[in-house]
Design goal:
Blueprint: E1 7-18, E2 21-33, E3 38-42, H1 49-56, E4 65-75, E5 81-83, H2 89-95, E6 100-103, H3 107-110, H4 117-129, H5 133-146, H6 152-156, H7 165-177, E7 183-187, H8 195-212, E8 215-220, H9 223-229, E9 232-237, E10 240-246, H10 247-252, H11 257-264, E11 300-315, E12 320-336, E13 340-344, H12 351-358, E14 366-371, E15 374-375, H13 381-387, E16 391-394, H14 398-401, H15 408-419, H16 424-437, H17 454-466, E17 472-476, H18 484-501, E18 504-509, H19 512-518, E19 521-526, E20 529-535, H20 536-541, H21 546-554, E21 578-580, E22 590-594, E23 597-600
Parallel strand pairs: 3-8, 3-9, 6-7, 7-8, 13-18, 13-19, 16-17, 17-18
Antiparallel strand pairs: 1-2, 1-4, 4-5, 9-10, 11-12, 11-14, 12-21, 14-15, 19-20, 20-23, 22-23
Helix pairs in contact: 4-5, 5-7, 15-16, 15-17, 16-17, 17-18
Amino acid sequence: MLDNAIARIEKLRVEFETKDGTVAGVEDVSFDVGPGETVCIVGESGSGKSVSSLSLMRLIEFGGGEIANGRLIFDRKDGDELDLAKADQDLMRDIRGNEIGMIFQEPMTALNPVFTIERQLTEGLRVHRDMSKEQAQARALELMQQVRIPEPERRLKQYPHELSGGMRQRVVIAMALACKPRLLIADEPTTALDVTIQAEILALMDRLKRETGTAVMFITHDMAVVAQMADRVVVMFRGRKVEEGTVEEIFENPQHPYTKALLAAVPKLGEMKGKPLPEPMKLLGHEQDEIKPITGTDQPLLQVENLTTRFPVKGGFFRRTVANVHAVEDVSFTLNKGQTLSLVGESGCGKSTAGRSILRLVEPMRGRISLDGVDVMGLGPNMLRDERRQMQMIFQDPFASLNPQMQLADQVAEPMRNFGSHAGSEMMDRVEMLFDRVELPRSFMRRYPHELSGGQRQRIAIARALALNPKLIVADEAVSALDVSVQAQVVNLMMELQAELGLSYLFISHDMAVVERVSHNVGVMYLGRIVEIGPRAAVFENPQHPYTQALMKAVPVADPHRRKSEKDLNFKPIPSPIHPVGYEPEPNTYREVSPGHLVLTSDSGY
């Protein structure tokens, strides 16, 4: 045990009352966090890692939990030790935000939608630090600059919905740091972020920790982030601590079988060097037959030419269009049957809009889209509805894309009902077959979405997308919200289905290691344009465009000896994609570096 620990958790047990009796969310967990130290708590969803952090903040009572046993010793600023488990809520209100800061996983729900960013940033300062309005505003501006938000003066006057996910998360970090807390608890603070923003935020937290001596308790399931951030690591599994050690010990010599399985499931950037074709991962405990690469065919299925999508910005008294958001600008590519083309880039680069435009869920302004010889842009509403059988989408958030009031069997059968492709017992047989296909037990057919874990929900979304035997599946960040081992299983499942059914995927993602694993071809998007596109090996092993190079550099590697420092990351702030009406950018021109490997030569703004 550390003598000078800022926080010590001793034999913590947290219980939840359920219909089936009392369930222990965390059982007999002990660890401590010292000043200027980062302790990473890793494990999958349901392992109890967030429960232990919420107990320390005493927020677990509001989530239906109860601290049944254990001590939570916190070393306060004035040198007194306090057992937080026994502190009353008034005292906790004083400590929360002031001495213990918390960064939550989901920035949209952590911010209040009806208050400006400035009001939310200054509130804690005025309550805990008795600052005047002017002092609090000056400190808020300083915090916004510290977390590198562009145009901070303008952003302070905006509301949360006007900011991108990465910016919201930075605001949440600024709020947590506002009162210079002694302990910072970060609960999956980078899960929903892009590689480059994640790299910046990790470097930012690391720098702030060194400058202020704050202790950091960092909760995550991403082993590459652990390698980047941790001094010590606590591995949790089913509510218990199964292993603890320094970051080097855990990565180089893991002892517990669960830790070994967790490290085996992490796709590492560079693993596919020298392998031209994608292939499934080897997972511990899933002894597959020999792993076969997926070849696909060289027949084009989807051809996209000069696709442009813009959204109007309304303003003024008559709500006229005053400007346009150039979301997708002159994008062209070809996807072959049975192959995967990945679009990568940061949030706001237009990759999801490109995917939705191809399915015409968003109407493109111009361009040609041809799916297996059918001109998708030329179809009227009825013909388009029929053509939708051939193209399906898997969305990022499986909970939001499923109907909470329908049983899962009905949700998977719904596309077949809508299109009248199957009926009666034939339809139920197909639903059962689809459940088998995505490796879910048939007993789940009677369940509802809230009774499943995130990974199981995503499998239902995949089964539903397969119901009509589509030729093209657009997977929009389909695995980004999943745990490492679940993500590895879902990725393997998608690749097996591709090999068996000859599916083509347009795979939209910001996770470079997963993209390297699954792709035949990769397109890198920046500010609505494809800046580099080509065979996966060419783009990953010989990136030519400066943006692609910066993106590759930002990817954290699951090896504690290869940490990134802040000076490695030289990102330029992303310019605004909003241009006045009448602005026409120059068309994209490319040069061919090697066969099929194209790099943008016209000015991309990077």
